[in-house]
Amino acid sequence: MSSHVYPKEKEIFPGLQLEKVDDRIMTLNVGPQHPGSGHMRIILKVDGDYIVHCDPDPGYVHRGEEKMAEYRNYITNIPHLERPVIHDSCNILYPYCLGVEELLGLEVPERAKYIRVIAAELNRCVYTQYWLAIYGIFLGHSTMFMWPMGDRELVIDLLDKMTGARVTHAYFVPGGVRNDLPPNFEDVCLRQVNYFEKRLKEYADIFYDNPILISRTKDTGILSREDAIKLGTTGSVLRASGVDFDIRKKEPYDVYEELDFQTNVLKEGDSYARSKIPWLDMFESCRIIRDALKKMPKSGSVRVKLKPNPKGGDTEVYRRVESGRGSLGMHIISRGKPQPYRLKISVGSFRNLIAMPHLLTGEMLGNMPAVYWSLNYWPVEADR
Amino acid sequence: MSVIAPKFRLGYLIKGITDNIFWIIVLMTLIGIPVVQIVLIYIDFPVIDGEIWNPFRVFDAMTHPERALPLVKNFMQTDLFKIVAFPGFGFAALIAAAVIFVERKMLAKLQLRVGPFYCGKVEGILQLMGDGLKLISKEIIIPAKADKPIFWAVPVLFAATAGAFVALIPVAPGWVVADIDLGLLAVFAVIGFFPIITVLAGWSSNSKFPFIGGIRALYQMVSFEIPLILSLLGIVMLTGTLNLSEIVESQVNFPWIIFMPIGAIVFFICILAELERIPFDLPEAESEIVAGWLTELSGMMYGLVQLGSYLKLYAFAGLFVVLFLGGWNGPSVFPMEPMAKVITDGIVIMPDALVIKDIPGLPLFAGEMINGTIWFILKTAAVIFFILLPRGVFPRVRIDLLLKIGWYKLIVLAFVNIFIALALVYSGIIGPGGIM
């Protein structure tokens, strides 16, 4: 680090008082039409190459999913609720289905629970590969852009066989999954997942052990354990700061407590650790899938028969799952109607975005992409 | 969608043909003949059979190989040919086009893709032509608050400076556009011009991201020019000359990379930084500052800068070959005086001339020139391959790490190289007056 370091606390420009302008300070609008911003704007104030103020400005892809959900009944909500994260559509439907099942008092068949876990873990791999590809190109590593994109096709093929769609599967329904697995799926899945895991190991050679990458991302954007908890971050950001928190372990849903996997925790809390946790999680996903394929009942029903227009009681439920970006919860309030009275989606992306001004202030402009994308932030999901 | 064939009319066909004939006649007369005569003015007309040839007899001579070949040979020794075609711009542009194609296909093979595939049927070989046509046909947009004269001048200056750099590279014995005694100093002077152009581009766009990119380019190029110049001092000490052709001739027995591997490595890293290639492409880092100092350039202005940067890449690779890998020196792969015999053997030039004649003007190229060109191209291709390769392997470095590499490590290594050269000179092994 240089001797020319700005204080971490934002004393220079507290809050949003953007009028205080210095001749040395230049304001940069990174986004929404910028190759390194995603669907959002980051207002940066830079002094030379150092960021003195950072103000993330999300909301460019707000689609009113929560309001839309109030006008559709519990089944017709399924296809539009997965739009915020089409790469992780199984995981974003997971808390919704769990909540509606609790609301309607449905008992999910055992085989459906295993199929859900397999689909959710495959989908986590798809999302993480996409995220990793963009992390690669943000750091200027074009091979790391192409490799995850290519290997992602293996998993997408599996999901295509399972659900009939490459992305936006709409596979989870309250009371199970939409359709049973195709014949001979177990063998194909095992073979492809094994090959996928072999490919994942090769990423270490070209990306994670690369000396230039390590020199760029080590010790940049350090989020301490206390700050990570205080700011309310979740998922890989929290686990990279040394907090052992995984909802699959702490509040197991469906059959996660019967499966064999571990939580990856790193202590450093820098960009490198934050970029490594999702990659390590993909190995765990492969492990979970193999274990679930072994323990899954070979036959049986996969869906509970529902009434045409199911009505919830006068209650409310909150269920959350571990998605690719951390905790993903849905709060469903029912008032005895076929539609939910209120649906509140709480996403990991938006929680992790809170850490961004904290991390970027005092960093160099060149660290902006590395820190920003290591937060595992998906702009579309955060805006909902 | 159905395509309706236009109705055929004989009148339109005849009109089209006569229109074409009319325009061919007009253009030939107004443009073709003056161009031919301008070209003919530049040729020193040879004396054949005791007659001095004039432009009016040249067309007649074209039909006779024994008379046409001396003209062609004389034309090849003019400066015009050297600048436009062989060691100059045309040759370099051809290599640059090949480099772009190889870069795309090689990176694609590295990254689980196929690269350009459809354009030109064979592995997308015409993709570059398609891209060029697209760039030419695009509208050039100038920012409203740009400093317009400087903004217009930037792409032209960049391509021209790269062309000036190309002109200094000797390709084969005697085949260099500008063979000057202070060749290496001229190279340094040309390299020193590039940061000015990038800063001008960043400043004149009057936009924030180009400005940051221009300043970054200035930092990077200035801090890497010093180790670049220092790493070449060892060769100047050992050869005692700054003339690039003489430096090549001094490597008949062994290339300098054997004695100065450290200098070669330092020079190679400096090449990567000067060319703004990954891992040193900070001035064009798209995820941080959009496209750096190229952000506001559009259409063929961008195309010219790209052409210039690939010419620069060829020139730097050629400079590496000339200084460290022995330039055109290499074992003879091409037979020495082949042309005269091969062509005249068995060719009946006139009905009654059955004797074998020596046609004046043959051989067109000396054997050593073709041999040297082959070796030069092979070595340059190898160097270019190693310049392209990091793009598939490394991410981008940060500006403080980049400057640290330049100022702390490379300058020290360059001085180590200089001391190795001094040791070689003073021990009397090689160098001016040495035993080799």
Radius of gyration of chain A: 21 Å
Give average pLDDT of chain B, whole number.
82
Number of helices of chain A: 15
Number of separate structural domains of chain A: 1
EC number (chain B): 1.6.5.11
GO molecular function (chain B): NADH dehydrogenase activity
Protein name (chain B): NADH-quinone oxidoreductase subunit NuoH
Pfam family, one (chain B): NADHdh
Short note summarizing the structure:
The complex is a heterodimer of chains A (384) and B (436). With 384 residues, chain A is of the alpha+beta class. Chain A is 45% helix and 12% strand.
Account of the 3D structure:
Chain A: It is an enzyme of class 1 (oxidoreductase). Chain A: This is NADH-quinone oxidoreductase subunit D. Chain A: Keywords: NAD, Oxidoreductase, Translocase, Transport. The complex is a heterodimer of chains A (384) and B (436). Chain A has 384 residues and is α+β, with helices and mostly antiparallel strands. Helix content of chain A is 45%, strand content 12%. In chain A, the strands form three sheets. Chain A has a three-stranded antiparallel β-sheet. In chain A, strands 6-7-8 form a three-stranded antiparallel β-sheet. In chain A, strands 4-5 form a two-stranded antiparallel ribbon. In chain A, helix 6 runs antiparallel to helix 11. With 436 residues, chain B is mainly alpha-helical. Chain B has one domain. Chain B contains 17 helices and two strands. Chain B has a two-stranded antiparallel sheet with strand order 1-2. In chain B, helix 7 (148-167) packs parallel to helix 14 (300-324), helix 9 packs antiparallel against helix 10 and helix 10 packs antiparallel against helix 12 (261-274). The relative contact order of chain B is 0.12.
